[in-house]
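To illustrate the input format used throughout this study, we show a single complete record. The first block contains the structure-token representation of the backbone; no residue identities are included at this stage. The design step must infer an amino acid for every position from geometry alone.
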């Protein structure tokens, strides 16, 4: 991990002053957004009051055990989905690629849905405890990855195209599976499943966030070292190969890291759409297509947007809350249409 961090820090020589200033500005905006989201809600809290000891015991409990882990999870999920989207768009050289394109999100969702509906009847709760849902989602996403590699192994240079087609089929099969499980679920399971499929950060605990954060951080550092190779890949696979890029290894590294971070994110937050699609485009609009800039900019922008979306979901219809997936879809759908029309003009 340390070597990956050192290698990525050395690659900052490929970032120009404008891109560096954008990243520093995004860091500042992220800190402000994070502080605001922790302070605003049903209980109005202040981080300064916490450090000065002016909060009551109830407010401290809300801040430390409810608000802070929720906001941190929103930042992690937004950053994870955005980084995965940026990497997959670079790998496929397709501006419409996102974690759901190759079925990774659907596989994670199907694994988590199986646990919600059938887990209590099949798996004893003492085996995994609160980690059973993230574990099931990661297994689901990893299973999809294995199937993708197995189905596209013999297609050679056209394997990327067939991987997209297999991803479409996987999404369809996963949708059927989720539909059947929804149909046979009980009333309480259906309520939980319905809210989960629309995305939510409620009910998360530090016991779930801390191991997830460590795995996601490792995947981030693992992916950062691939940024220069992704830049070379934009020239074409044959050109990148002639410049020393191992295409098969690059493909393996990106898809496996995407499976890990998307599986963890989906298991903890549910299905949240459009973030992995629109955030990399926003980052490119800000500062360009250089992946040494694009990857950290996507992480920061995704975290900011997701924290803001979760804040809106909490305050729009207080004391109830909207599923955060509805907020991201409301933001992402118009941008997606604009992107399609813009591509048609070109």
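Output of the design step:
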């Amino acid at each position: 991990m340390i070597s990956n961090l050192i290698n990525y820090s050395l690659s900052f020589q490929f970032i120009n002053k404008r891109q560096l200033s954008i990243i520093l500005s995004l860091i500042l905006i992220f800190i402000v957004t994070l502080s605001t989201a922790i302070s605003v809600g049903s209980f109005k809290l202040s981080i300064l009051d916490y450090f000065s000891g002016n909060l009551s015991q109830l407010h401290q409990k809300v801040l430390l055990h409810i608000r802070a882990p929720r906001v941190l999870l929103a930042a992690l999920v937004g950053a994870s989905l955005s980084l995965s989207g940026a990497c997959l768009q670079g790998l496929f050289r397709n501006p419409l690629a996102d974690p759901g394109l190759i079925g990774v999100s659907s596989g994670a969702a199907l694994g988590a849905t199986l646990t919600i509906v059938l887990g209590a009847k099949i798996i004893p709760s003492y085996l995994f405890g609160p980690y059973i849902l993230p574990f099931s989602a990661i297994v689901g996403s990893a299973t999809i990855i294995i199937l993708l590699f197995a189905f596209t192994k013999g297609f050679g240079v056209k394997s990327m195209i067939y991987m997209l087609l297999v991803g479409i089929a996987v999404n369809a099969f996963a949708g059927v599976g989720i539909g059947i499980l929804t149909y046979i679920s009980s009333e309480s399971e259906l309520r939980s499943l319905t809210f989960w499929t629309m995305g939510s950060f409620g009910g998360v605990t530090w016991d779930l966030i801390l191991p997830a954060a460590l795995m996601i951080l490792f995947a981030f550092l693992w992916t950062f070292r691939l940024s220069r190779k992704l830049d070379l890949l934009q020239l074409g696979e044959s050109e990148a190969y002639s410049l020393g890029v191992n295409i098969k290894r690059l493909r393996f590294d990106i898809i496996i890291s995407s499976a890990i971070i998307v599986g963890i994110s989906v298991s903890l937050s549910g299905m949240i759409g459009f973030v992995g699609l629109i955030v990399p485009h926003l980052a490119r609009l800000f500062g360009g297509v250089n992946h040494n800039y694009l990857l950290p900019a996507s992480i920061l922008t995704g975290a900011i947007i997701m924290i803001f979306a979760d804040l809106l979901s909490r305050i729009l219809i207080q004391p109830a809350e909207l599923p955060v997936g509805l907020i991201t879809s409301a933001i992402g759908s118009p941008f997606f249409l604009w992107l399609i029309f813009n591509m048609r003009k070109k």
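Structural context for interpreting the output: The chain has one domain: 2-68+76-345. The chain has 16 helices and no strands.
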